[in-house]
Amino acid sequence: MRRAALALVATVVGLVLLLGFKTHSATSTASPPAAVSAPTGSGSSGSGSSRSGSTSSPSGTGSGQSGGTAGQSGTAAGIKVTGSSVGTQYGPVQVQVTVANKKITAVTVLRYPTSTGRDQQINSYAIPVLKSETLSAQNANIDMVSGATYTSLGYIKSLQSALDQAGL
Amino acid sequence: MSGVAAVPGLLPTGRLPTRHVEHVMGTVVSFDLRDEVAPTVLTDAVEWLHRVDRTFSTYRSDSQISRLDRGELTAADCDADVRSVLALGSALAKASHGYFTVRPAGRLDPSGVVKGWAIERASDILRAGGSANHAVNGGGDIQLAGEAAPGQPWRVGIAHPHQPGELVTVVSGRDIAVATSGTAERGDHIVNPVTGRPATELASITLVGRDLTTVDAYATAAAAMGNAAREWVLELDGIAAFAVPAAGAPWWSADWAAVGSVPVAA
Amino acid sequence: MATWTDQRVRPAPRAVVPPPSPRPQPARSQPRTVLGLIALGALAVVALWWLDTPSVSGFGDWLTNAGRITGLLAGYAVVILLALMARIPAMERGIGTDRLARWHSMGGRYTVSLVVAHALLITWGYAVTAHTNVASQTATLLTSYPDVLMATVAGGLFVLVGAVSARAARARLRYETWYHLHFYTYLAVALAFSHQFAVGADFMTNLPARLLWSALYAGVAALLVWHRFVTPVRQALRHRLRVAAVHREAPGVVSVHITGRHLDELAAEPGQFFRWRFLTRDLWWSSNPYSLSAPASARLLRITVKDLGDHSAALARLAPGTRVFAEGPYGAFTAARRSRPKVLLLGGGVGITPMRALFETLPAGPGDLTLVYRASRQADVVLRRELDAIAARRGAQLHYLLGSRAKLGYDPLDARRLRALVPDLAAHDVYLCGPDAMTEAAERSLRAAGVPRSRIHAESFQL
Question: Which listed CATH number (3.40.630.190, 3.10.520.10, 3.30.365.10, 3.40.50.920) goes with B18-258?
Answer without folding.
Answer: 3.10.520.10
